[in-house]
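Hi W.,

Here's what went into the run:
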Amino acid sequence: MSSYKTAHIYFLQTIMSRGIISHTECARICEKFCELTGDDGNSTLQDFIGTINTQLLSFHFKVRESKREDTGETVFVLVSMVENVLNRLVINGNYSRVEMDFFRKILDLIVLSSDTDNPGCASSIDILNIADSLTPKLSKSDAKKLLSRLVNDQWFYDNNGMIVMSPRSILELEHYLSVAHEGCVKSCKLCNLLVFYGQSCEHCNACIHNFCAAQGFKNTTEPKCFSCGHAWPNKYKPISGALISGKEHR
Amino acid sequence: MSSQAQTSQNRASDKLSGVELERKANEVVHFVLIWEQKKIPIKRADINKHVLKDHKSSFSDVIKVVAKKLEKVFGIKLVEIGEGAKKAYMLVNTLDHSETSDVMKWKDNSKRGLLFTILTLIFMSGNSIMDGALWHSLKRLGIEKDHSHSVFGDVKKLITQEFSRQMYLDISKVPNCDPPQYEYRWGQRAFHDIPKRKILEFVTKLYDKSDIMVWKSQYQDMIADEMNEQQSG
Ligand SMILES: [Zn+2]
Ligand SMILES: [Zn+2]
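Here's what came out:
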């Protein structure tokens, strides 16, 4: 593995500042910093990030690779490996207690979403309706501001009013979610990442991402469950434009 | 692992050493980096309360290791400010970011623009400016004290509270003035974060001058600062 150089520090600072960066952009940034510093740019992106992670290990940070659930785009996320992220956010004063309650309720709504056609996401209207049930109450306009702040801080993505979890919240809250919603947190049968926003088997409840379905059922007219072999109900849905642009990034 | 044995052994003196010292320092690094998202200096008391706990007596040993690690791995300098019980730390970037803003996409880029403008006004007025003169100048840029701004929202709060809490601005009340008047100076973070040379280059371009040396007193001020910086380190 190559040694830790200034180009790595530049990259680390960039991902610390931005939180999530797409695979494509990571490659571009990496190249830019190697050029800027004159450091060796021959290693692959995986090696480059591996070198950074070796340094980060003892500080309980990690640059992790994941995928956006809504688009399938490969991204890199800087995550803190210390549990209890939600408490940490309060201690830091980034969010107040009531704001954190709202955050938690949004997660509940998304994870427990009973809309079988669209599991793993929630409409912003439903989300804003939770504001009334909080103590102390959160006004609609404050809730609206808070939701856009959470989207801005990249905890969620907003696709025309449909809110999905970002890789940042999935990776950082993995532990919290699997304790708070035991049994509701599943891994995708195709890519093994956690899956919230996706489609599931009517027979065995196995779940896969929409972008994995598109990939996995590409060459078949009669899709079957990858787990139990039962006919797949959702066929695979027409894919949004976002997914198609996400595919180029592979 | 013998870390448990070591912990109980250390508890007698509460002084950390070796592996334990290293481990605590790593925790502090994690903590200050998370804290930094607020851009507010972290107090010694916060580090003690949230991380060191029973090992407060090792603070100075730990913080030395922390400073080294932050610089080596993250390109960040740990700068001590204040004294005694009020001792606090802020993080200052050691890398040159003059060519990276397109990829860094600093959050709050527009806020930084406003901040840069205010620091420029202060510097060009001889390192301090009265609030009346400041707001007068900002008004010409469409920024008004008592009007919500389309980008910045409550501008008054942003300047007088956020920028000052983040230690970019040092605002002090002028004694014996009615109505009260305030004097604005550069805060400690500004001295570390924003090179005066950048400001002079910016103003030189703005006024279409050929060389930053046309601003004689500011130029000398800048040179003096740069010499100081070199000496300290
Ligand atoms: Zn998948
Ligand atoms: Zn099945």
